[in-house]
Amino acid sequence: MDFQGEIWYHPQVIMWGMSGTIDRAGKKVCWDMEAGGTGMETVAKITIRCFVLGMVLLLIWFLMYALAGELMYEIHSKWFDLTEHEFAVIHYSGMARLKVFCFLFFLFPYISCRLCGKK
Q1: Which burial class, exposed, middle or buried, applies to 34 when counting CB atoms under 10 A from its CB (0-12, 13-18, 19+)?
Q2: Is residue 117 within 8 Å of 62, Cβ to Cβ?
Q3: Which of 69, 79, 104, 118 is 20 to 30 A (C-alpha) from 38?
Q4: Are the C-beta atoms of residues 17 and 39 closer than 8 Å to each other?
């Protein structure tokens, strides 16, 4: 029996809301953006929400550091042997890493999903 031309939908792929196909032997998975169209839209919605939440977290972190930085330093300097410079470097580098992470892993995939979704 030859199954080369026959394609069927895998239940797990449909469960995630993405249209995809697997050949009968289970060798090849093909994501079909034209069939359902919901997969790219779902990924785009998730990534933009994650980006917004990451930026909100960054804003809260910055405001806490800007408004209560001295209090935070006093609390942490009791637990750890940190200078004010080291404390500032830890927070600024952490904020920079969070910002880069949000742009790289959430905003850029969102933009690429939107560009791929255009016809």
Answers
A1: exposed
A2: no
A3: 104
A4: yes
Please give the single-letter amino acid code of residue 119. K
What's the rounded Cα separation, in Å, for the pair 47 and 62? 22
Helices (H), 25-83: 38-79
**pTM greater than 0.70:** no
Instruction: Please give the Cα distance from 62 to 74 (Å, whole number).
Output: 17
3-state secondary structure of 23: strand
What is the spatial distance between Cα 2 and Cα 75, in angstroms, rounded to a whole number? 71
The token pair that represents 28 in the structure block: 């090849």
Name every residue whose Cβ is closer than 8 Å to that of residue 107 and which is 6 or more positions away in sequence.
47, 48, 51
